Write the structure tokens for this entry.
Amino acid sequence: MKNFINSTQKYFWLTGAFFIIMPLVSCKKSLLPKPYSLFTTANYFSDESEAYAATLGVYDAMSSQNAYGAYLSFITDNDTDISQTSGIDLVTDYRVICHYQGTAQTPGFYTMWSALYAGIDRANLVIQQIPAMALYTSGTAAQKTDLNRMLGEAKFLRGFYYSELVRLWGDVPFKLTPSQTGEDFKLPRTNRYTIYTQIIKDMQDAAAVLPTSLPTDERICKWGAEAILARVALSAGGYSESQTGQMLRPANYLDYYKLAQTEINDIMAQNLYKLNPSYAQVFKNQCQGVLEPTESMFEVAFYNAAGSASGGNWLGVIYGTPLTAAGIYAVTNGRELALRPFWQTFATGDLRRDFSIATYTINATGAQVPLAINTRSDETWTAAKWARQYQVNDILERASTNINTVIMRYSDLLLLRAEVENELNGGPDQLAYDAINMVRRRAYGQPVGTADPAVDLAGLNYTSFFTAVQNERAWELCFEGERRSDLIRWNILGPTLLATKQATLAIRSNFNYTASTNYVEGKSELYPIPANERDINPNIGQNNGY
């Protein structure tokens, strides 16, 4: 049975020089909400429980549809060579964002921006206040350990939130102190590589004090922090859109790959993580609230006590599930469409294809009803990893779910290792082959630790192995929020969208795929600075093309 983050279940919302304690709805069951109260930084952080409540508040910034329940996980990843969002209009923000039609006035951009900066501001307060606590210097050894863990969590999360801002907007305002009433908030943007330097420091500082054992809840451990740092390092070492619209990577990009290699090697040396023998079971566990810390390295907690559409995760209702009629299961509307050209790239025997992609709908009796191929029905295929039949079918999860959003899986780390080793060695070494082949063996239902010539890759040069990694990341991690960012850091987003358009046209001339038409090179790789932010901060400027 899943273990949840349990505490007095409070979070804080920073407002000027004070913050409000409110019920925490994101960290899991057994909630004990407290009444609304008013505290100042002078009379709070007096003991471990208050520091813990504030730390949970930093996590809580992730646990909403404004963050990793929809926008920052799935909406920012749709319309690639894997998937697209259903429907076309210029009003619904999650559609226009996915279809590369968003403007600075699109509400969803400010939604995401605000969620990330709220998390950063909360983290800044925890980072400032915990070292000032009397217990931090004079408490027992156990108290100091706990407080250092919380400080590490806040630093990791601050780094993670900044990494997401840089990933989506490039250069952004940068601030390492908590907000205060009367402060000048009209900050200019800071160069992203200056921010990356702090992100790396925050995550390394965090890893030094976080627990080394596998977690029993959704709190980050040392190895999860190092895994996220490895992925951040590859983003920093990859291509990104500059303020002039050029796609550039830093001259010292290999230094970032070496950093990723160091972090990955440290994790692998512990021998703590392993692949679940069943690819499908990974997502069934996720749907049923079963924590699997050997496979899932970092995930965002969700809990929606009210059962409302806006209170939980869209995963399993809007995203990642086939269309479902009312009946044995609750209705879904499957807005994440799986593209037929992607379905066609899977090799025979790859079990991931038919588990990940629904070429069917589910009727009222729970039966699968196939959707025809070579009719326009194949334009309504959907993602299926979090389908209703895998969920607990709780009445509170009809409008939104309590499924956690997984940010990092072990298979993701293995594929990052394969990519890093190939890059640093000018071609694949044994570590690279071992990493990618373990992922492939599971995909074909074979023991992951046993060589299989029918499945394993071998004899590839740098270019062919890199292509294999790119493909494997698509097949293994499809619909999990990584594809668009991968295409950008590899500098192939535009060509990939065009190739996908051509592949759809080869199926039929009126196949619905709008992404390549709306994509603009040197613009679409970054989002616009939200108009709301620019209205109050004239120093912030705007990204190219908006």
